[in-house]
Design goal:
Distance between the termini: 71 Å
Protein name: Protein of uncharacterized function (DUF1156)
Radius of gyration: 31 Å
InterPro entries: DUF1156, SAM-dependent_MTases_sf
Strand content: 5-15%
Number of helices: 26
Helix content: 40-55%
Pfam families: DUF1156 (PF06634)
Strand order of the largest sheet: 18-2-1-19-20-22-21
Largest sheet: 7 strands, mixed
């Protein structure tokens, strides 16, 4: 079958280690990162999205033989492109015009001088559309979820409309030239401060100060409350607080905790300032799904809590107050005055929509909190409704200022306007997003973190949890959870947007939209992992209040659309089977439509969030992964590459059990030719065995960690499978994706096993022994017999200091026993096994610097590539044995290979220079 297209870089080679490192680093970057505009779930790292788009659009040098006729020239050009890509994905280079121009030049060169139009039909948090725009491409985004649509508008559609515009507020124009969205950001800050000050003027009396022990008035950061129920003990039905921990601060020297005591049938709370607080089971009254009465220890069951909650008999106690001090937080005991001030009626206009009955992701309805308004205290409802109303008032102020600044009134933003009215709508959009952000910390589901000493947001995980003791933040403080903090996050995020080529964002189902002429890069929903629309409603009900006048169509429904959302949700589709059928049908329909309509001269890229639960006991993937591959293949696609990308580094890769899975897999896909033939299982197996070895060798020689090899190997394997219209089993049935993956995994095992033949005899013996017995003892007669089979003696293995036989027992020496002092040059007998195990052990014990010093000498004896290849093989064997410790050991060595070899070269060069100086001096003497 001949190719009729030019292969792109993503279909042959990626600097995966650099991409993963940049993606991992991104987690520690907050200020200006677009993720801080507003929370959304399962966002792709910008570095990953930027790298994938570049590699998706740029030709691989091998596909341009007229320019790069030899393999050496192709390798050199590929290395140059990799180097550019590695500069491109650095966070600090996000808006570096020189680097972005170089990237655009390469994209144009590979696309007949044009910059393609990019679409993500499942735009979500907006990483892919934003990075497409950053690369100078015409970026389009669509989603069914109005929250996702609003976020994408705020990132790629709105900023280019007002790029370079000056702020309109009084006292603006403080600088001569405003780049990109700097003027927008300044107006967001100005009108955000106005909103905050006006809200404090109206409702500030609900957020009083408190006197400290010296009588000084202090601004409150948060009031800490506990939900309560009456003890089920009829003899002592005391109102019992439900508290997960009594600790407020565990910072050394600043410890603070709550002492609760029962006095006259009432619970009293006093904050103590010492390190002698409760520990273990004495810390809290609600831990590990168990609760008990504070008075006499009577157990309180979860069923009892649910019945009390649904009956409306759950109360609250104020248990502590946290205030701003001169040097950090001040922890104070609660007062009756502060408890009474919070005891107010809730406002009339509140989001009273019902919460969905999804017990897996939304826990509060089981305890009587059934409406969105139930998730907030009356004081929080007053604050949020006030801020929502002030968005509209701020919008009118912006409109007047924009008209006074000389802008034409124009059309509204929702209908495409770019004048004063649209500018007012724009600022209102960002202010509303700040209010929506505020709800994540101004809720009775936000908690206090005793370690970080801050308010923890509601969505610390992808669910709406039930929180028993919560922190009610003060939006007018200058500390954790305040409103100006939300404004600041939004303004910084907007300021950092590229604001280049105009973007286009639509609310439309992926199964209904038009794809004509568009290149698709998308991050589709992950089967049943996340109920996006249900979680989005938490924010949507507030955005609807604030932006009803700005986006009458987008926020016109009471809640976000649910019926057509492409997620396998059992409670919405009559159980698990119905949910699976709905998802598969929808998924197949979307990708078949893309295949028919989209620009297919460039591969489509698809992200899949590969989770640990996707791995079955038989080593194959489960429903979500099968569904993705089935949907693509059934939709007419051929998978040409798969790349495991992760946002975790180093030890985190295997930190939880045997969790060796990358955070996501990126697939490159091409339309399968209409004339693609069918084949047999035997022919498919033969093709796998012919093509997989070279593909694996390329992967191993590249920059990929052992932990990612099995996932990366899916690419060349499933590429063989998907190039055929059908693969038929011996009984005439069609081979399933699951069966194909099992065959690919089996072939991977065979290929890795065949590598053993290239190793020395001692190494082959050790691999065989490790595979069967690990580091354990076994009969020395068996060892002798196996050694003879490999043409080596037990004595030689012992002299090589890798094996031990005595008292009728034999064993491999473990990494711990080989981690001591080692001189590869002085060692009489160095095998690949000894070098690999010793270096892995030294890496763990002494770190990369010491390992790098030994690598040049070890390489002289056995070769660096042999060490690396054995590291891959031993990781693979450890994985099969479910030996996490060994898997971590060998993965750490090979994962750091690029850095290790760089340091080794530097060390070897410095030693050579010193040696030359020494020789020269001796000659003089």
């Amino acid at each position: 079958m001949t190719e009729t297209y030019k292969k792109k870089l993503i279909e042959t080679s990626l600097p995966l280690e650099a991409i993963n490192a940049a993606s991992a680093r991104e987690k520690s970057i907050r200020h200006g990162h677009p993720s801080t505009l507003h929370l959304y779930w399962a966002r792709r790292p910008l570095a990953t999205a930027r790298a994938v788009l570049f590699a998706q659009l740029v030709d691989d040098p091998a596909s341009r033989p007229e320019e790069f006729p030899t393999v050496a020239e192709q390798d050199a050009e590929r290395a140059r492109l990799h180097a550019l890509l590695q500069k491109l994905i650095v966070w600090e280079n996000s808006n570096d015009e020189s680097i972005l121009r170089q990237a655009q030049k390469e994209i144009r060169k590979s696309n007949n001088g044009e910059l393609p139009k990019i679409l993500d039909p499942f735009a979500g948090g907006g990483s892919i559309p934003l990075e497409a725009q950053r690369l100078g491409l015409q970026s389009q985004a669509s989603d069914l979820n109005p929250l996702a649509v609003l976020i994408n508008k705020a990132l790629i559609e709105i900023p280019p409309k007002f790029s370079g515009a000056r702020p309109v507020h009084d006292g603006g124009n403080e600088q001569n030239h405003y780049q990109r969205a700097e003027g927008l950001a300044e107006d967001i800050r100005f009108y955000g401060r106005w909103m905050r000050n006006e809200a404090q003027r109206r409702i500030g009396h609900l957020y009083p100060t408190i006197k400290d022990s010296d009588g000084i008035e202090r601004t409150v950061i948060a009031w800490v409350w506990a939900r309560t129920v009456k003890s089920p003990n009829p003899a002592y039905p005391i109102e019992t607080p439900l508290v997960r921990s009594w600790w407020l601060s565990k910072r050394k020297g600043k410890e603070a905790w709550i002492q609760a005591s029962v006095q006259d049938g009432q619970v009293r709370y006093k904050v103590q300032h010492n390190a002698e607080g409760p520990t273990g089971n004495n810390d809290g009254t609600r831990t590990n799904r168990k609760a008990f009465s504070i008075s006499d220890g009577t157990p309180i069951s979860t069923d009892y809590l649910k019945s009390e909650g649904t009956a409306g008999r759950m109360g609250t106690h104020l248990i502590a107050i946290i205030a701003e001090g001169n040097r950090g937080r001040i922890y104070l005991s609660p007062t009756d005055e502060h408890e009474q001030i919070a005891n107010i009626e809730q406002p009339q206009s509140v989001p009273d929509q019902e919460l969905p009955l999804d017990p897996r992701n939304i826990w509060t309805p089981a305890y009587g909190l059934t409406q969105f308004s139930d998730l907030f205290t009356p004081r929080q409802l007053v604050a949020l409704t006030t801020l929502s109303e002030l968005v509209e008032e701020a919008r009118q102020r912006v409109l007047n200022a924009a008209l006074a600044a000389g802008m034409e009134r124009g059309e509204p933003l929702e209908t495409g306007g770019e004048g004063a009215l649209a500018y007012a709508d724009t600022i209102a959009t960002y202010l509303a997003l700040a209010v929506s952000r505020q709800t994540d910390r101004l809720s009775s589901l936000a908690s206090w973190q005793s370690i970080g000493e801050k308010v923890r947001n509601v969505f610390a995980r992808q669910a709406i949890p039930m929180v028993w003791d919560y922190a009610e933040a003060n939006p007018f403080s200058s500390s954790s959870g305040n409103f100006l903090g939300q404004i600041d996050w939004v303004a910084k995020s907007v300021r950092h947007t590229p604001a280049l080529v105009p973007g286009k964002v639509m609310q439309v189902s992926a199964s209904e939209r038009d794809y004509s002429g568009l290149v698709v890069s998308t991050d589709p929903p992950y089967y049943d992992n996340i109920g996006y629309s249900d979680l989005s409603d938490y924010f949507y009900v507030w955005l609807r209040q604030a932006l009803g006048g700005v986006y009458p169509e987008l926020v016109g429904t009471m809640l976000t659309p649910k019926a057509d959302e492409l997620v396998a949700n059992p409670y919405r589709h009559d159980g698990k089977d119905g949910a699976q059928k709905f998802f598969i049908n929808g998924f197949n329909s979307v990708f078949a439509r893309i295949c028919r309509q989209a620009n297919t001269s460039i591969p489509m890229t698809v992200y899949y969030a590969y989770k640990q639960q996707d791995s079955g006991e038989d080593g194959t993937a489960s429903t979500g992964w099968h569904t993705l591959l089935d949907g693509l293949i059934a939709g007419g696609w051929e998978i040409t590459a798969t790349w495991p990308v992760r946002s975790e580094r180093g030890g985190r890769m295997l930190s939880v059990g045997t969790n060796a899975l990358a955070s996501s897999i990126v697939l490159a896909c091409r339309p399968r030719p209409a004339q693609a033939p069918a084949t047999t299982r035997r022919a498919f197996s033969t093709a796998l065995k012919a093509e997989l070895p070279e593909a694996l060798r390329t992967l191993i020689q590249g920059v990929i960690a052992p932990v990612d090899l099995a996932q990366a190997a899916i690419g060349p394997g499933i590429a063989v499978f998907s190039r055929y219209a059908k693969v038929r089993n011996a009984d005439g049935t069609d081979m399933s994706v699951k069966d194909a993956l099992q065959l690919i995994n089996a072939t991977l095992d065979e290929v890795l096993d065949e590598q053993e033949s290239e190793f020395d005899s001692a190494t082959r013996f050790c691999v065989k022994w490790y595979r069967q017995y690990g580091w354990g003892n076994e009969n020395s007669g068996i060892a002798d017999q196996l050694a003879r089979a490999y043409g080596i003696s037990i004595g030689a293995l012992e002299r090589g200091e890798i094996f031990e036989a005595k008292g009728g027992k034999a064993r491999l020496l473990s990494p711990e026993q080989l981690s001591g002092t080692w001189d590869p040059i002085a060692d009489d007998s160095v095998s690949v096994w000894e070098a690999t195990v010793r270096l892995a052990a030294i890496m763990k014990k002494d770190g990369i610097e010491k390992t790098a010093q030994l690598l040049p000498a070890a390489a002289e004896r056995v070769g660096t590539e042999s060490i690396k290849e054995l590291g891959f093989l031993l990781f693979h064997e450890a994985e099969k044995k479910k030996d996490t410790r060994d898997a971590v050991l060998f993965n750490a060595l090979v994962s750091a290979w690029s850095e290790l070899t760089d340091k080794a070269r530097t060390y070897a060069a410095s030693v050579a220079v010193v040696q030359q100086e020494f020789d020269f001096t001796e000659g003089e003497n």
